[in-house]
Design brief:
The complex is a heterodimer of chains A (479) and B (441). In chain A, the strands form three sheets. Chain A has a ten-stranded mixed beta sheet. Chain A has one domain (5-474). The longest helix of chain A is centred in the first third of the chain and has 16 residues, at 46-61. By secondary structure, chain A is an alpha/beta fold. Chain A is built from eleven helices and 24 strands. Helix content of chain A is 22%, strand content 34%. Chain A is globular and about 65 Å long. With 441 residues, chain B is α/β, with parallel strands linked by helices. Chain B is built from ten helices and 21 strands. In chain B, the strands form two sheets. In chain B, strands 1, 4, 5, 7, 8, 10, 12, 14, 16, 18 and 20 form an eleven-stranded mixed beta sheet that branches. Chain B has a ten-stranded mixed beta sheet with strand order 3-2-6-9-11-13-15-17-19-21, with helices on one face. In chain B, a hairpin with a 2-residue loop joins β2 (100-104) and β3. In chain B, α2 packs parallel to α7 (150-158) and α8 packs across α9 (405-421). Chain B is globular. The two termini of chain B are 37 Å apart. The chains are: A alpha/beta (479), B alpha/beta (441). At the A-B interface, β21, β22, β23 and β24 of A face β20 and β21 of B.
């Protein structure tokens, strides 16, 4: 190849700065006392403490999973700070003016203006800094149509009955090792409730930021869409550059009742570590949606470009008859990144349908695995699944793996799976060169074409951003 | 991923499974004939076994195949026994006349085997009867990759005899060679461990048929291992037919080691047994190999058929084509795990894999995992899997031409199976298998 392929990722991680802010952090380590302390700090109702302790005790009996196709040194769970919050944060914010200006600046720098008046796009944002939610915009406007959008801590104070009813119903506390850990120590996250027959008037968005170098982030998001409602939700994540690895173990639970639709999009750009694989976030996340009602629909779209290790399977449990699950994913790994990601589609109800489109791009010394499960239960008459997972390899030291599990227990089901692997060919680059297009531009065009099916599913602004993000991440990889 | 399989075998404790495996090892070891002189190889295999456990559904490789039903059965090693010619006459293929080896209870039967139609240079017979090979055997027997696997090692520790087919350089055997494996048990549950070693030296060629046959419902455990070595430019066409009795646990291993420019075409058909598992492993030791794997499982009632294939490519320019099909009726359970591993050196590999499953009943179940692991970047790899019942529009199309629905269904099932059976190179065998499929529904 005319240009050296591997010089690529020289593009610095532009979100890697640290905000110097005084933090209120608890000592390192995890014990029942720590769990109680977190619950007390947040002034939670009794059922929450109960929930956390149950999860903690369950966690103690569990083992860290070893089946993912990733490798990392053992995590010392006693060396993590489980709660860290900016100190200057007043208990209750009257308005945005009361937010610490340093914090506002941080989010400005990240391109997330929290000041509503300056905001052009019609998107409500919940900004989460380490363990707490800093601000939620457009709350009043949303309240007019009955939509509740706030941090989960706030929801626990103001709508405990809703939280109690749905929390842990989609991802049970003992679902897996990291889910149990999250259930015990989760600090904050977003809560969304869309009332009956309501179309959420604007897109909702949460922005996660890890700042403290020793803290883990354990956020919890819960979205409930009542029958006939619909909502589009976006999620973004960044973290500063540290030499050490930080643990991020989140849970997202979605509940869609009859005829409800939830679209959930993620652009994940946690710090991925440097080119030698030092530092970066361990992103061990459990995301699951429950299509509880008839004709309900949950759609996951994800663009995974960050994290040293990604371990994440946004899933749909299709219980309601004729419910629909979708999963669109682009996972890009570079340098020493490792990704083991995919989805689970569990068909329980009749005539349920699911679509999986997964695109994996691996460059340099990275490892990219698609792991998926399509399960058709004995009662899921007429279930239908289509899966496609394509991989693209850049350079001969990266690897692409697919582990699709297909389990069918109903003869009327129709399940199709296809996968292919390809590379950016010299002939393709030559073809572009003939037309006066530089290798860099050619690569970014080929990649963007490869990912088209997924990007089309992202909200407009996100799609443009995702395209640029991939181009940046791969700069100098091929040339 | 949370396991949803009812983990019955987990109920049996690890200690119980350990003890069971130890019991099996002791039983097969005690019955080893002393005159084969394979002590070193056997004790190495036994050492490997000491570090392993009897698999449970907690092991990824055995997640969907539950062996716990075996744990309550004590298998004794099947003793020597004679079988009447009448019992196997129907299995002999006219094409293979004079090139037939009959194995009874894991031992080559000289009375029933007929090998007069083979070129004199080729060595075909039992391990005991080919002393001039003993010096060369050590490099091949039990030397293939994956020999440490628990059931393969168990076979190595205790096999009673082995079929040896050794083709010297440039020897082309025109007559297809047929190996018939049968058992005759004396009532008690028994373990039978057939072993086969095929070495095709460079430039040689042969067609091989392995036929595992049984018609008794008695408890039996067949643990077979066939090692095939294809040296440079060798060509082997291989059909493996498994039609064991309804009480049989059949765990079989076929391991093929392919050197430069060799060509292996294999067809594996699973019709019988209560529980069948076929580990089919292909290892490449040189470039530009061609590998074609075709599999068909047709199972009903409470049968279980599991095919785990592995194609490990470590050299450039390899070509792999794989198609595996399953027809599943009744409460049967079909499992397919097709793994292709393309190492960094295996540039310009072209690999395709297709798994298609036909579900004929509401209680039938399919678990499939077509798995690609790719490190080389300049490769073309694709895989696909489908699970469905017969297409309503296809049946309707045939009905619109005056064919009744049940007939249309038979026709479609037949066509589905024939795509695989057509790759069986021995005509009589092909038509016999086709006849079985047409009676099947």
């Amino acid at each position: 190849m005319s240009v050296s392929v591997q010089s690529l990722v020289s593009q610095p991680y532009k979100y890697g700065f640290t905000t110097d802010i005084e933090a209120d952090a608890i000592p390192r380590g995890l014990s029942e006392d720590v769990v109680r302390m977190i619950s007390a700090k947040k002034n939670e109702p009794a059922f929450m403490l109960e929930f956390r302790l149950k999860a903690y005790r369950k966690w103690l009996t569990m083992k860290e999973p070893i089946w993912p196709n990733v490798s990392y040194p053992p995590i010392d769970y006693q060396n993590i700070v489980y709660y860290s919050a900016p100190k200057t944060q007043p208990k209750k914010l009257g308005s945005l003016d009361e937010v610490d200006p340093t914090m506002l600046e941080t989010f400005e720098k990240l391109g997330i203006p929290l000041s509503e008046q300056k905001r052009l796009a019609n998107v409500a944002v919940d900004a989460i800094f380490d363990s707490v939610s800093i601000a939620t915009t457009y709350k009043e406007k949303l309240a007019e149509s009955g939509v509740i959008f706030c941090s989960i801590s706030e929801a626990l104070q103001e709508h405990p009955e809703l939280v109690e009813k749905y929390l842990g119903t989609v991802v049970p506390i003992g679902d897996n090792y990291f889910a149990a850990l999250n259930s015990a120590v989760f600090s904050d996250g977003s809560f969304v409730y869309i009332p009956k027959d309501t179309q959420c008037p604007m897109d909702l968005s949460t922005y996660f930021r890890i700042n403290n170098g020793d803290s883990g982030q354990f956020e919890r998001t819960l979205i409930v869409a009542e029958s006939g409602s619909s909502v589009t939700y976006l999620e973004g994540c960044t973290a500063p550059m540290y030499d050490s690895n930080q643990l991020h173990a989140a849970i997202v639970e979605l509940v869609a009742l009859d005829n409800a639709t939830i679209n959930y999009s993620t652009v994940q750009n946690w710090f991925a570590g440097d080119e030698n694989g030092k530092g970066g976030i361990y992103n061990f996340v459990t995301k699951r949606g429950l299509c509880a009602g008839k004709n309900s629909k949950i759609s996951w779209t994800q663009v995974e470009t960050g994290s040293a290790i990604t371990w994440k399977y946004p899933s749909c449990v299709l219980v309601g008859d004729s419910s629909v699950g979708e999963f669109y994913s682009v996972a890009l790994t570079n340098n020493h990144q490792q990704a083991d990601t995919g989805t689970k589609m569990v068909h329980v109800g009749k005539n349920t349908r699911s679509t999986i489109i997964s695109k994996g791009i691996s460059a340099a010394k990275s490892k990219n695995s698609y792991r998926g499960l399509v399960k058709i239960g004995p009662k899921a008459t007429g279930a239908r699944n289509y899966s496609q997972c394509d991989s693209m390899l850049i350079g001969d030291t990266s690897s692409a793996n697919t582990f699709p599990y297909i389990q069918v227990q109903n003869s009327t089901a129709q399940v199709e799976h296809e996968a292919s692997t390809s590379k950016i060919g010299e002939d393709q680059l030559f073809y572009f060169a003939q037309r006066g297009i530089s290798p860099e531009d050619a690569v970014s065009m080929i990649i963007s074409g490869f990912c088209r099916d997924v990007f089309n599913k992202l909200p407009m602004e996100f799609a443009a951003e995702a395209d640029k993000l991939l181009a940046l991440k791969l700069e100098n990889t091929v040339g | 991923m949370a396991s949803s399989v009812s983990d019955v075998s987990v109920l049996a404790t690890a200690d119980q499974r350990d003890a069971y495996l130890k019991g099996l090892v002791q039983a097969v070891k005690a019955a080893v004939p002393g005159d084969l002189g394979l002590g070193g190889m056997r004790s190495r295999a036994e050492a490997l076994l000491n570090e392993q456990a009897f698999p449970s559904t907690r092991d990824e490789d055995w997640r969907f195949t539950d062996l716990s039903a075996m744990l309550s059965i004590e298998f004794a090693v099947a003793g020597e026994s004679a079988v009447d010619e009448a019992a196997i006459a129907d299995l002999r293929l006219p094409e293979t006349a004079g090139a037939q080896i009959v194995v009874v209870n894991g031992r080559v039967s000289t009375a029933l085997s007929r090998i007069e139609n083979l070129p004199p240079e080729a060595v075909v017979g039992s391990l005991g009867s080919s002393p001039d090979l003993s010096a060369k055997l050590g490099e091949r027997l039990a030397q293939a990759s994956g020999s440490h696997e628990v059931f393969t090692a168990l076979n190595t520790v205790g096999f009673q005899d082995a079929v040896v087919i050794w083709l010297p350089r440039n020897v082309v055997v025109e007559t297809p060679i047929q190996i018939i494996y049968v058992s005759r048990l004396q009532g008690n549950p028994a373990i039978v461990q057939p072993r086969c070693l095929v070495v095709a030296e460079s430039g040689s060629a042969a067609t091989l048929v392995e036929d595992f046959w049984g018609n008794s419902a008695d408890s039996q455990f067949t643990n077979s291992v066939s090692e095939l070595w294809l040296d440079a430019n060798a060509q082997v066409s291989h059909s493996r037919i498994q039609r064991e009795g309804a009480g049989t646990f059949h765990i079989g291993k076929t391991v093929v080691t392919q050197a430069r420019d060799s060509q292996y075409v294999g067809t594996a058909v699973d019709f019988g047994a209560k529980l069948a598992r076929h580990n089919w492993e292909i290892y490449q030791t040189g470039e530009q190999t061609t590998t074609k794997l075709y599999g068909l499982g047709a199972i009903a009632n409470t049968q279980h058929a599991d095919t785990h294939s592995l194609v490990a490519l470590s050299h450039p320019h390899g070509t792999v084509e794989q198609e595996h099909k399953a027809i599943v009726d009744g409460k049967a359970h079909s499992v397919f795990n097709g793994r292709m591993a393309v190492a960094q050196k295996a540039q310009l590999t072209s690999a395709s894999q297709l798994n298609r499953n036909l579900l004929l009943s509401d209680k039938a179940r399919v678990d499939t995992k077509p798995q690609l692991e790719i490190v080389a970047d300049n490769v073309k790899c694709a895989h696909g899997a489908t699970v469905s019942q017969l297409q309503a529009d296809e049946i309707f199309y045939l009905q619109s031409r005056g064919i009744s629905a049940p007939q249309a269904q038979r026709l479609l099932i037949y066509a589905f199976a024939m795509e695989i059976l057509e790759t069986v190179s021995v005509a009589t065998l092909r038509s016999r298998l086709a006849a079985l499929i047409s009676q099947w529904t």
